[in-house]
Design brief:
4 helices; 4 strands; alpha+beta; single chain; 26% strand; Alpha-Beta Plaits
Length: 119
């Protein structure tokens, strides 16, 4: 399994727009490209304009197809409009801690406040 990650610095005052745009990309991705692959957006408590996103993929080919799709390109452009800096990174992980946290989060055992939510 591969995980992709994005490290985002958002322009001051644009944080809520960024969150909305990121959720639009995540929802579109789940519906069109990777059903059942939950993406996460985390927000830094000390630096509220700093976000980190990550999500699981079945293969490098799936990630490449996603990044080349028109839907991705349109949505990532909107996200970048609100960002002053971003660093997408593909990682090959074996993350037993992430799987446990995801399972616990689903069971409402991880604090949801760790995740930027669409409100």
């Amino acid at each position: 399994m591969i995980y992709t990650s994005g490290d985002w610095m958002v322009k001051p005052g644009r944080e809520e727009e960024f969150i909305e745009a990121w959720h639009d990309l995540a929802e579109w991705t789940a519906a069109e490209i990777a059903p059942g692959a939950p993406a996460m957006l985390l927000r830094d408590r000390d630096e509220p304009a700093h976000f980190r996103s990550f999500g699981p993929w079945d293969s490098d080919e799936q990630v490449a197809a996603w990044r080349e799709s028109e839907g991705f390109l349109a949505r990532i452009g909107r996200i970048r409009d609100f960002s002053s800096d971003s660093r997408p990174t593909p990682w090959m992980w074996s993350l037993s801690w992430a799987a446990r946290c995801r399972e616990a989060w689903i069971a409402s055992q991880c604090p949801r406040s760790l995740y930027a939510s669409k409100q």
